[in-house]
Design a protein that fits this description.
- With 238 residues, the chain is mainly alpha-helical.
- 76% of the residues lie in helices and 0% in strands.
- It is extended and about 70 Å long.
Length: 238
């Protein structure tokens, strides 16, 4: 019985009709659970919707917990380790935030609403495309970490240069970091900008280099994604 439940709730390569229905149903529930966050005023309909989706999440969490040994394949230790996996913690946070929301105080309201948005990560469990993306991220994590370190270093150095070049324009170093980030991404909101000739030159260089640096993680992800798709096609042929 537990094995049948596990096969239904856990997505796999060859989905049966029941498994597809369950996955689609849970995706709809996740999206529905986010709807109450789109309004600021109290609504009876959204309150009932919140209660129903929370109950469904609790049932889903319990089913996954009692079948954890099939997923982790570590015997009784699976039931101990499962609650500490990323998606299990996401599920638990989504449930706890809703339970707190039922008895919230005004002081905790904003924090609770923010935590409830973590439900969007539950979609990774039910979407094969998102699962593929997550798999690519794991495979390319070393390359992405190197690029991430490069981005952070570049932002810090740019901020340090502009902060010393235009001390009157940038009151704090955080302002310089903000400028460096929006210049790197070529967004340019225009709320903070260089006014001197050398400051504008630094901005131009930062924006040009930013295009190249931002393109690195995109190219890594694209190459990894295409490679993973080819590997999946190859496995299906064999």
């Amino acid at each position: 019985m537990r094995k049948k439940i596990y096969n239904i709730i856990e997505p796999n390569k060859n989905l049966t009709t029941v498994e597809k229905i369950y996955d689609v149903f849970m995706v709809i529930v996740i999206i529905a659970s986010l709807l109450p966050l789109t309004i600021k005023t109290h609504s009876t309909f959204y309150a009932h919707l919140e209660n129903i989706t929370t109950i469904i999440f609790i049932v889903d969490y319990v089913l996954r917990l009692i079948t954890a040994d099939f997923k982790l394949k570590q015997g009784k230790w699976s039931f101990v380790k499962y609650p500490f996996t990323f998606l299990a913690m996401t599920d638990l946070l989504a449930i706890l935030s809703s339970l707190l929301f039922w008895n919230n105080t005004f002081r905790l309201l904003k924090i609770i609403r923010m935590v409830r948005t973590i439900r969007v990560f539950k979609l990774f469990r039910y979407s094969r495309s998102l699962n593929l993306l997550l798999h690519v991220l794991k495979k390319q994590k070393e390359s992405l970490l190197i690029v991430g370190a490069l981005v952070i270093t570049y932002i810090f150095i740019s901020a340090l240069i502009i902060f010393n070049v235009e001390p009157t324009t940038f009151n704090t170093f955080f302002d310089a970091l903000y400028w460096a980030t929006i210049s790197l991404t070529t967004v340019g909101y225009g709320d903070i900008y260089a006014v001197s000739a050398i400051g504008k030159l630094i901005t131009m260089i930062s924006s040009i280099l930013g295009v190249a640096i931002i393109a690195l993680p995109v190219s890594i992800m694209t190459a990894g994604y295409l490679k993973e798709i080819e590997e999946q096609k190859r496995r299906r042929r064999h």
